[in-house]
Amino acid sequence: MIEDRILKGMIKKFLDNFGIQEQDDSVAFEHFCNYCLFTHHRPDAYSTDNFFYRNVHTGKGGDKAIDGIMIEVNEVAVSSLEQLKDVVGQRKFHANFVFLQAKTSAKFDSGDMLKTGLGVKDFFQKERSELNANENILHFKEMADYILENSIQHDDQPTCTIYYVTTGKWVGDKDLENAKKECENFLNSLNYFGEVRYVPIDALKLSSIFKEVNNSVTKQILMSKSISFPSNIKGVEQAYIGLVSVKEYLKLIENEEGMIQQGLFYDNVRSYLGENPVNKEIIDTIKNENKCIQFPILNNGVTIVTKSLRPSGEKYTLSDFQIVNGCQTSNVLYKCRNEIKEEIMLPVKIVCTEDPELINDVIRSTNRQTQVLDEAFESLKVFHKHLQDYYETYVSNDHLYYERRTHEYDNGEKPVKKSDIITLPIQLMSMLSMFLEEPHSVHRYYGELLNAYRSRLFQSDHKLSAYYISAWSLHRIEDSLKRGKLNMKYRKYRYHMLFLIQVCIRRFAQIKALPRPNSHDMEKLCNKIRIALSDNRQLDALLRLLTKIIDDVVAEMTETNCINPHEIVRRKDFTILLEKKCQKIDLDFKR
Length: 591
What we know:
Elements: H1 5-18, H2 25-41, H3 52-55, E1 68-73, E2 76-78, H4 81-88, E3 95-102, H5 110-125, H6 135-149, E4 159-165, H7 174-188, E5 195-201, H8 203-214, E6 218-222, E7 225-228, E8 238-245, H9 246-253, H10 277-287, H11 295-298, E9 302-312, E10 315-325, H12 327-335, E11 345-352, H13 356-366, H14 374-378, H15 382-391, E12 401-403, E13 421-423, H16 424-434, H17 446-452, H18 464-482, H19 494-508, H20 520-534, H21 536-561, H22 565-568, H23 572-584
Parallel strand pairs: 3-4, 4-5, 9-11, 12-13
Antiparallel strand pairs: 1-2, 1-3, 6-10, 7-8, 8-11, 9-10
Helix pairs in contact: 2-8, 5-7, 10-12, 15-18, 16-18, 16-19, 18-19, 18-20, 19-20, 19-23, 21-23
């Protein structure tokens, strides 16, 4: 039982925000801790899947004293082996493993801390067949094994971070410190990791992290040599360019623990690329005693966009800011922080504006110097602005918000629940499932999907209603899951349900062929889908019908073809059989 009233309020806010209905206080706390610490590492982790909180949760029987696991590869929180392979490809990659154990107890226990450390050690050391663990642990074990077996592609050794969270207070007790160090030592002895960190988190620190990941960051920077831009630049309240000591700049991007705040870079379209040739050159310059003084001449510097800027002499206070260009430089400087000399300076441009289109223009223009993944620029295109505006035309109780830029709605005048936000990956996968009829493809990394379906999605002549209705229908299915009207075991089939809804409504309305995305008939079909799914009783009846179809096809495929039920959702023949079954079943779901 959690006694801390402030913490209890934060947990309730989190559950309400994500639409999570959890009666078990311990499990709710585990979800909350996973969210705080995983978002602390990867700010966009929870934006690709509304059930990400379930994907990373491992706290049940056979959990090896681990309540949550997140694996980052090339700055992407991967959820499956297929997605991992998509992200890695044939490229060099870097990986981070993050583990968490959450205890509602108001004290730290050295024995429990050691159990978690030993659980993590088993996770890496034992064969998958020998690891006595639950299904979720084994799912992550499969990905971890792939990462370690492909070490030839590592651009740096992986990192391993373990968080041990309680509602008590960490006072640095000697026994607890020894337990912490012992865990770090035996994990380091595996020789898998470049860095191992065992981090105790108490109630006060957990509260601080929750505030950090949900609110704008305010920091102060000292810029001794600067000039201001003209005051007549449209959309710009004020702007400055100048030189900042690298030591001073590091204070801006580090949190209280001395870790780099990845959340400051979620508007930066290029994630950290590891020690590629360009970054190695930056490292060489920093470490060279003769050339390091030339750093501000050789480096393009960083661009910061902030919504609030208060200059006072040489001090500049920034609130709600993003580093939109300079992710590579920032990460390299952080990596070399112990070798930075006091005299090394960095060019910094600060732009104060609340104009979202100007922010997008700054992001585009400042990130063209080196190769950027295509998906990074996708949401900045005009189509997505029009789609965002289209979403705003629906003002019903189930109003949804299309988020073009990560965390765009975090600090607006009107609070927006996370569960009501549709991100680019979710939009892509819902449209792909419902109207491109390929729900078996959504397990892949969304960047790969975007490239593969570029000519068939987000086209200027497409009816925006198709995009809205596909995402809204997914939201309705997920709402039924959260209300308990649809068993949670069917959540892995929700994209197939999207596809089947479209098939059912077409059949019910006697529409033989799926309309083209740019046709008026598509508008008509979308309207019929909205009418059919608007009533909860009718929606629940339709979903019950779809679960019967799914159960029948799963049973048929597993019995006749000996297919693993977990693999079925990724098979095209599963989608085909579902449609055939749907074409024959009685469609009396209006009850």
